[in-house]
């Protein structure tokens, strides 16, 4: 009916959108409410971001008022700096090991807690979520004690025969990074589990019932029904956890301080050490490392976005 | 569904509608937030005057054991004698202080007086960047009891005194502090001092085998601690220090350094080191030593001051110290650089004359004796320890320093522009501390080869820094690091600089 009316009436005459000043005058209160966010975001996110690009082009000892412009010299030094690449590699290893573990374990926990016959579901959800609300630095300090050679974890492994002698997990060049990854997974498992639980709620019960009527067992139902419907969520959750895995400074710094011998130094600790920890702080060099790291992170985010688009298309095609 | 509406009374027009109210409320909240952002960071410039004759001094340092002493022996007497002056001290962890100072400098919020932990690599660079104002213009440090310890290039720049040595240079950080009760439990006599590396190993073994405790702590999470220990042990084995002052060359790969590292690794291999040591910083080790988990902990003279502050009952339990052990019976001294300035008056301070006068009080005999009583680093006037109220173990420790430590030359004193090279030098990694940390954590590395690589890298970096400084027109070369008249077993005095 509306269509016919439109046909009768013909196309409406084109109206010029109101000008910026007019919109500001008309809806000034909207912009007033936006102002605190814009100011805060500008001062604490945009400005540091833009400033770090400029700082990256300076030779700037931390005790000087300002740096000297040196062009891309900092980036050239970075490319030749073994410790930068060591920290870059550690960040990638951390990412590759910890993110799938966190996403996968959380999915398993969510599936178990989503079953009707699982007892103490509320209690278990709280239990798994508790480390999420605990400060990373406190967890780092606590696990330093738990994971040292005289700590309960090492002693329990020796008692059980899994280890011949106590191992100092956080102070061994071969295990420090992986210990950090394990503690990080443990700390954040609860929040990823909540994401998965929310995702599982979106799958209609009828689909599960239909699969059951068709004779699908739990395994086939998971592979052919649940998992395909979770793929868009998988991409989003992986993206969130990946960003989280690039922000592990507090936990790793208190747990290992990047050591021993830089074996667990991720890029954030490298930046901090260069900017503040050295006897002669190098703000320009640290900024260059941050910029390079930011670019790489951006690349990962773009890849993730493409993945989301692909997943949506794939899911749409399946439907 | 009814389409009829109950009759409504006509609305009274409100003077302010909801949107206007929310808008005004939002604007008010924003103004409040912005206003709150302005305050809170009291700087030296913003300190409120409390009176015409003085002012409110902001004071930052990292000396936790000195907290009570500074209050009782310096601030309270001074503010009582000078009504109108107040001092607000803020203690930060050493690692945080350097960062706080950098940030404060850029936001013009430096305190009036502060120490330099974390930024003490080249104080002269900070002077040249205009961080400080001279204290010598406001107080007569050249006539103070520590006048003989003031050096050009370290405390005095362009003829003006900027700071002064609060502590004695005659100290090191490898004093083996022991737990008397654990030694006795292991059947050992604390007075039977282990003078050699093998003797110390034997003591650590006796404790490990005869008690539930470990023999020794080697907190390895802090590479700087390990660097200091290795360098000082290497000096007892005959190394001149990191630099051979007769040639100016770095000697990190000389045999004494290799031997010192091997000694530490052998303690680890023999199972005498506390198993959690690799994950400890020195303060962790101190807490565990206090808990009786190990018998020996090599650290500095402040060890006992920290314990008195945090666990006085442990001091009562019984402790003592020995001299730094050496590879054989031959006594070789440890060399230490002249003490730098500790407290500086920031360029932002509006009360430099008050700050300078307050700092001058720290150079007096009374304050130096009180400083000794805090049992932190020994005071600049070392003789004050003899009459101060200190634990016998601390007095013993300082007496051992007098025998064991000699003052090394300093290029910054010998050449007016040497600091420029030091400030230009970038950190070379991995340091000796990192190498030892790596080896102690189980990595299979060739220590001698790694030390050689480090020595070569540091030498190259110094040459690069030297070239960069020379390119700026500064007249300096490697001779600034050469002191041909240096005698390893003698103090390098100001006369020696003149005779060079």
Distance between the termini of chain A: 31 Å
Number of structural domains of chain A? 2
- Report the β-strand fraction of chain B as a percent range: 5-15%
- Number of separate strands of chain B: 14
- Examine the secondary-structure arrangement and name the CATH architecture of the largest domain in chain B: 3-Layer(aba) Sandwich
Provide the helix percentage of chain B: 40-55%
Q: Biggest sheet of chain A: strands, sense, closure?
A: 2 strands, antiparallel
CATH superfamily (homologous) name of the largest domain in chain B:
Periplasmic binding protein-like II
What is the domain tally of chain B?
A: 2
Keywords:
heterodimer; A: 319 residues; mainly alpha; MetI-like fold; 2 domains; two-stranded antiparallel sheet; flat; B: 500 residues; alpha/beta; D-Maltodextrin-Binding Protein, domain 2; four-stranded mixed β-sheet; 14 strands; 43% helix
Question: Could you explain the architecture of this structure?
Answer:
The complex is a heterodimer of chains A (319) and B (500). Chain A has 319 residues and is mostly helical. Chain A folds into 2 domains: 16-55, no CATH class; 73-318, MetI-like (MetI-like fold), CATH 1.10.3720. Chain A has helices at residues 2-9, 20-26, 28-55, 73-79, 82-114, 121-129, 136-146, 152-159, 176-201, 205-213, 218-245, 249-255, 267-277, 283-318; strands at residues 58-59, 68-69. A two-stranded antiparallel ribbon of chain A has the order 1-2. In chain A, α5 packs parallel to α9 (176-201) and α6 (121-129) crosses α9 (176-201). The longest helix of chain A has 36 residues, at 283-318. Chain B is α/β, with parallel strands linked by helices. Chain B folds into 2 domains: 56-169 and 339-363, 3-Layer(aba) Sandwich (D-Maltodextrin-Binding Protein, domain 2), CATH 3.40.190.10; 175-336 and 412-499, Periplasmic binding protein-like II (D-Maltodextrin-Binding Protein, domain 2). Chain B is built from 20 helices and 14 strands. Chain B has a 4-stranded mixed β-sheet with strand order 2-1-3-13, with helices on one face. Chain B has a 4-stranded mixed β-sheet with strand order 7-10-6-11. A two-stranded antiparallel ribbon of chain B has the order 4-5. Chain B is globular, with a radius of gyration of 28 Å. The termini of chain B are far apart. At the A-B interface, α3 of A face α1, α3 and α18 of B.
């Amino acid at each position: 009916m509306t269509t016919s009316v439109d046909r009768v009436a013909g196309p409406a005459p084109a109206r010029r959108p109101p000008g910026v000043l007019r919109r500001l005058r008309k809806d000034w209160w909207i912009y007033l409410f936006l102002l605190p966010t814009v100011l805060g975001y500008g001062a604490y996110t945009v400005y540091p971001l833009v400033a770090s690009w400029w700082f990256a082009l300076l030779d700037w000892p931390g005790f000087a008022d300002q740096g000297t412009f040196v062009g891309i010299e900092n980036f050239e030094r970075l490319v030749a700096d073994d410790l930068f690449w060591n920290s870059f590699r550690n960040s990638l290893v951390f990412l590759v090991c910890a993110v799938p573990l966190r996403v996968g374990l959380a999915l398993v926990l969510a599936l178990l807690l989503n079953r009707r016959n699982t007892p103490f579901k509320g209690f278990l959800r709280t239990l798994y979520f508790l480390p999420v609300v605990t400060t990373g630095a406190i967890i780092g300090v606590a696990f330093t004690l738990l994971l040292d050679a005289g700590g309960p974890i090492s002693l329990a492994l020796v008692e059980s025969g899994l280890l011949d002698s106590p191992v100092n997990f956080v102070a061994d060049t071969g295990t420090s990074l992986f210990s950090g990854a394990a503690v990080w997974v443990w700390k954040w498992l609860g929040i990823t589990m909540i994401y998965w639980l929310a995702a599982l709620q979106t799958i209609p019960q009828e689909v599960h019932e239909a699969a059951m009527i068709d004779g699908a067992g739990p395994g086939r139902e998971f592979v052919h029904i649940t998992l395909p419907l979770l793929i868009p969520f998988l991409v989003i959750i992986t993206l969130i956890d990946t960003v989280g895995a690039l922000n592990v400074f507090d936990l790793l710094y208190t747990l290992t301080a990047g050591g021993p011998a830089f074996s667990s130094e991720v890029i954030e600790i490298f930046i901090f050490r260069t900017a503040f920890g050295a006897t002669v702080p190098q703000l320009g060099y640290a900024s260059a490392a941050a910029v390079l790291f930011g670019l790489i992170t951006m690349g990962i985010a773009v890849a993730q976005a493409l993945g989301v688009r692909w997943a949506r298309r794939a899911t749409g095609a399946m439907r | 569904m009814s389409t009829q509406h109950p009759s409504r009374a006509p609305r009274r027009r409100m003077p302010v509608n909801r949107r206007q109210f929310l808008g005004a409320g939002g604007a008010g909240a924003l103004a409040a937030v912005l206003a709150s952002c302005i305050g809170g960071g009291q700087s030296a410039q913003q300190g409120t005057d409390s009176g015409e004759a003085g002012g409110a001094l902001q004071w930052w340092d990292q000396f936790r054991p000195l907290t009570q002493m500074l209050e009782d022996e310096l601030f309270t007497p001074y503010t009582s004698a000078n009504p109108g002056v107040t001092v607000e001290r803020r203690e930060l962890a050493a690692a945080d202080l350097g960062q706080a100072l950098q940030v404060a400098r850029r936001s013009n919020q430096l305190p009036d007086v502060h120490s330099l932990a974390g930024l003490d690599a080249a104080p002269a660079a900070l002077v040249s960047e205009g961080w400080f104002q001279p204290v010598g213009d406001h107080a007569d440090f050249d006539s103070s009891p520590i006048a003989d310890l003031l050096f050009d290039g370290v405390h005095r720049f362009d003829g003006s005194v900027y700071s002064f040595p609060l502590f004695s240079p005659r100290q090191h950080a490898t004093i083996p502090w022991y737990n008397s009760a654990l030694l006795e439990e292991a059947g050992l006599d604390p007075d039977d001092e282990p003078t050699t590396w093998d003797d110390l190993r034997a003591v650590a073994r006796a404790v490990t085998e005869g008690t539930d405790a470990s023999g020794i702590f080697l907190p390895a999470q802090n590479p700087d601690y390990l660097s200091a220990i290795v360098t000082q042990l290497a000096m007892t084995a005959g190394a001149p220090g990191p630099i051979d002052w007769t040639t100016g060359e770095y000697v990190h790969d000389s045999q004494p350094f290799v031997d010192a590292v091997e000694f530490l690794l052998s303690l680890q291999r023999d199972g005498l080191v506390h198993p959690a040591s690799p994950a400890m910083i020195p303060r962790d080790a101190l807490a565990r030593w206090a808990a009786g988990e190990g018998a020996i902990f090599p650290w500095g003279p402040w060890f006992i001051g920290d314990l008195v502050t945090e666990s006085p009952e442990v001091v009562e339990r019984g402790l003592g110290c020995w001299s730094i052990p050496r590879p054989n019976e031959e006594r070789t001294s440890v060399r230490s650089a002249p003490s730098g300035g500790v407290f500086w008056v920031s360029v932002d301070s509006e009360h430099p004359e008050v700050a300078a006068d307050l700092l001058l009080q720290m150079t007096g005999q009374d304050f130096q004796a009180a400083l000794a009583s805090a049992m932190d680093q020994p005071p600049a006037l070392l003789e004050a320890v003899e009459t101060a109220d200190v634990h016998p173990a601390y007095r013993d420790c300082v007496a051992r320093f007098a025998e064991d430590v000699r003052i090394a030359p300093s290029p910054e004193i010998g050449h007016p522009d040497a600091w420029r090279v030091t400030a230009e030098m970038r950190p070379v990694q991995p340091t000796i501390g990192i190498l030892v940390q790596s080896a102690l954590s189980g990595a299979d590395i060739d220590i001698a080869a790694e030390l050689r690589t480090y020595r070569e890298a540091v030498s190259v970096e110094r040459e690069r820094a030297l070239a960069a400084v020379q390119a700026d027109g500064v007249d300096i070369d490697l001779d600034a690091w050469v002191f041909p008249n240096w005698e390893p077993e003698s103090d390098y005095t100001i006369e020696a600089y003149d005779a060079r």
